């Protein structure tokens, strides 16, 4: 590798580390979910703290494992909204590892950065 390419890779790596730190230090629980399987692709530290699971545990789970109200109807409605506008607002109830529920329902905003929707994902 030339020094310039290495420097570019190092800069990109540093930016990714900063982004990860910002996401993990957020006061909001953030989950990245596969739109087809509804499995967690990534979660931040706040999600782990709120639900009582480790990141590794959550990455083996899906939305259905932590939301007792999630059903195929909700999934279809959210997917339709994502297809139409690139985002969707909905409320959920989260079940913790110990079986208790978060004290209130949570409002979520889903977004999509699939091909064809990039314009909605850019800052």
Give structural attributes.
Beta-Lactamase, globular, 123 residues, alpha+beta, disordered C terminus, two-stranded antiparallel ribbon, 6 helices
Would you give an account of this structure?
The structure is a single chain. The radius of gyration is 17 Å and the shape is globular. The protein has one domain (28-121): 2-Layer Sandwich (Beta-Lactamase). It has helices at 3-24, 45-51, 55-58, 63-66, 72-85, 118-121; strands at residues 31-33, 40-43, 87-92, 106-111. A two-stranded antiparallel sheet has the order 1-2. A two-stranded antiparallel ribbon has the order 3-4. It is built from six helices and four strands. The protein is an alpha+beta fold.
Give me the secondary-structure topology.
Layout: H1 3-24, E1 31-33, E2 40-43, H2 45-51, H3 55-58, H4 63-66, H5 72-85, E3 87-92, E4 106-111, H6 118-121
Antiparallel strand pairs: 1-2, 3-4
User: What do we call the CATH topology?
Assistant: Beta-Lactamase
Helix % is 40-55%
Q: CATH top level?
A: Alpha Beta
Q: What is the molecular shape?
A: globular
Strand order of the largest sheet: 1-2
Order of H and E elements: HEEHHHHEEH
Total count of helical runs of at least 4 residues: 6
Q: Could you report the average pLDDT, rounded to the nearest whole number?
A: 81
Distance between the termini: 31 Å
Q: Give a count of the beta strands, DSSP E runs of length 2 or more.
A: 4
Level-2 CATH architecture: 2-Layer Sandwich
| Derived structural class | alpha+beta
**Main sheet overview:** 2 strands, antiparallel
